[in-house]
Amino acid sequence: MMFAKQLRDAVMDGRITCSVRIWQNPRVKPGGRYRLGPGHICVTSIREIGLDDVTPELARRSGFQGRIDLLKVARHGTGDHVYLVEFHYEA
C-alpha cells in the first residue's frame, strides 16, 4: 500500500490505522503485508463502503483534515468502488 508522504510518519507511529481507497478492485487482502519504511503495513480487514460512509470522523482517522481532503487524494484513478482498509504497522 502506498501512502502520501505527509501521512507516512503517522502510519508508522500508529496514529493512522485505516485508509479509504477508491479502486476498481481490491488491491490488498486481509493478512497481507505491504512494505512501508523499515517495516510493514499489516492489513486486518478490507470492506466495500459507500461514499456516504466517508464521514469527517473517518477522514480524520485516515489522517486528513476532512472528507473533501480525503476524497481529493483518494480519487486519482479510474476506480469507482470505495474500500475501507483497516491495518496496523509492524516495524
Summarize the structure.
The chain is α+β, with helices and mostly antiparallel strands and 91 residues long. It has helices at residues 5-12, 56-61, 67-74, and strands at residues 18-23, 33-36, 39-49, 81-90.
Key traits:
91 residues; alpha+beta; Archaeosine Trna-guanine Transglycosylase, Chain: A, domain 4; 4-stranded antiparallel sheet
Describe the structure.
The chain has 91 residues and is of the alpha+beta class. The chain has a single domain (5-90), classed as Archaeosine Trna-guanine Transglycosylase, Chain: A, domain 4. The chain has three helices and four strands, in the order αβββααβ. The chain has a four-stranded antiparallel β-sheet with strand order 1-4-3-2. β2 and β3 form a beta hairpin. The longest helix is centred in the first third of the chain and has 8 residues, at 5-12. The radius of gyration is 12 Å and the shape is globular. The mean pLDDT is 95.
Summarize the helices and strands and which ones pair or pack.
Blueprint: H1 5-12, E1 18-23, E2 33-36, E3 39-49, H2 56-61, H3 67-74, E4 81-90
Antiparallel strand pairs: 1-4, 2-3, 3-4
CATH architecture heading? Roll
Q: How much of the sequence is in beta strands?
A: 25-35%
The sequence of SSEs as H and E is HEEEHHE
Number of domains: 1
User: What's the average pLDDT?
Assistant: 95
What level of helicity do the residues show? Answer: 10-25%
Shape: globular
CATH topology: Archaeosine Trna-guanine Transglycosylase, Chain: A, domain 4
Secondary structure: number of strands: 4
